[in-house]
Give the backbone structure.
Amino acid sequence: MYVVDKSDTDTRVQAYDKIWVKHIKSALMENRFRLVQQPIASLLGEDKGMFDVLVRMLDEQGNEVLPAEFIAAAERNDLMKNIDRWVIGASMSFAANRKASCIFVRVSKETVLDKSLLPWLDTQLKSLRIEPKRICIQVTEDLANQYVRQTKELAENLRKLGFRFAVEHFGTGRDPLKLLADIEMNFIKIDGSLMQGLSTNQIQQQRVKGLVEVAKRKGIETIAERVEDANTMAVLWQLGIEFIQGYFVNAPEEVTISGER
């Protein structure tokens, strides 16, 4: 029965993927991907013009499709590199058309392992003529832990080109302090799960404070993810966090690049 069930599941996944691969490829060819921006607010009082960007796909009727619906199929069918490059390119155009000091762009495993990324980025920089420090490439803590050597190499090569580097969803892995020691980064984005109940949880506060203190000693700036209320924001300020993002700051909004509308 187990073999039959697994075979049936595999068949369903293949059928599901066949549909989504067709949609993803046509969306890439027809430029039906869109960026949405979410501001990152400073707790130090000064707006730094920092944004996190997320990707959305539009279907043939122009309806928004969330990443949760198509990313898994893209990962299984080697399409993430193509999506990542679209997102990076669109983010660089966004930076060229707006006075944003830093735009955070998340990339997948395929991009971390992609040897052709750096030459492509160099070409993009020359074409768009933006300051590379305005783009911060980010990977998840989980991905960085799985591919420490490749992530370290990517961070070093990005720094040589002038880009910045961040690790997001930080602080819940097996040894976040070792990751801070192994990989040079400009920012850590402390995982949103650590924000839940933070205002009343002393143990969690100490955990976040410890991450902040180590990061500061290494000259790494700190951002708290998924901040949803004023009490959490007040505690984060006391703990020394420099930036916050989440629905308390602002919901994601569609990016308008000059000339699109």
The chain has a mean pLDDT of 91. Strands lie at 33-42, 50-58, 64-65, 102-106, 135-140, 164-170, 187-190, 221-224, 243-244, 253-254. The two ends are 55 Å apart (CA to CA). Residues 2-29 form the longest helix (28 residues).
